[in-house]
Amino acid sequence: MYHGNILQERWRSGSGNDGAGGGRWQSPQGCPALVLNADYTPLSYYPLSLWSWQDAIKAAFLERVDVVAQYDREIRSPSFSMRLPSVVALRQYVKPSQNPAFTRFNLFLRDRFSCQYCGAKEELTFDHVVPRAYGGRTTWTNVTTACAPCNLRKGGRTPAEAHMLPHQRPFRPTSHQLQENGRAFPPHHLHATWRDYLYWDTELEA
Ligand SMILES: [Zn+2]
């Protein structure tokens, strides 16, 4: 089945339409594949782990993934045709890193993209709970998410001085905790074949 030049060949669009798209014509660009780990859980919830159709097909040919579900959409080359993968699963389990990187995105994700003082979801910034002027460091355990107005209000004061306590004490999250928080942020577009893999345990709880 594997053809050495398959990836270099020029693909042509098929005429199939996507079942979940109400018969609307979709370009291959609109057909990303959800990437699952070898245990069939998403590699990442937020941002959702998606590959372009080209990457998904390439990985399938290289036998790095199993195709779990497909779009109706088909692509053809002179020697081959296949339906675009909508869900792929890695053959080799990727262990999530135990210590997520201390990044702007991960910090907001830990705090569920909400101000830890008032709950606002807009104008998010960082706040040093113990101000830098007091020796507070830029670490997981001293930085929290604050909206700009709260940040301004707290200024260079400690929580005690400002009478402003963050809802949760800043902590170093695990990858699992970030994944769990990420599940609260479903993307705008969810293909029908993705749902089983994104929310299966939620549905079992219901
Ligand atoms: Zn606020």
Describe the structure.
With 206 residues, the protein is α+β, with helices and mostly antiparallel strands. The protein has two domains: 12-94, no CATH class; 104-173, DNA Binding (I), subunit A (Orthogonal Bundle). It has helices at residues 53-61, 104-110, 148-154, 159-162, 175-182, 195-198, 200-205; strands spanning 12-13, 33-36, 50-51, 65-77, 80-90, 124-128, 143-147. The strands form two sheets. Strands 1-4-5-2-3 form a five-stranded mixed β-sheet, with helices on one face. It has a two-stranded antiparallel ribbon with strand order 6-7. Zinc ion binds next to strand 7 and helix 3.
Task: Give a quick summary of the entry.
Helices cover 22% and strands 20% of the residues. It is of the alpha+beta class and 206 residues long.
Helix/sheet category: alpha+beta
**Percent range of helical residues:** 10-25%
- The percentage of residues in β strands lies in 15-25%
SSE order = EEEHEEHEEHHHHH
Distance between the termini: 43 Å
Count the strands? Answer: 7
Number of domains: 2
Number of helical regions: 7
Bound molecules: zinc ion
Radius of gyration: 22 Å
Low-confidence stretches: 1-6, 14-25
Key structural traits:
206 residues; DNA Binding (I), subunit A; 2 domains; five-stranded mixed beta sheet; 7 strands; elongated; disordered N terminus
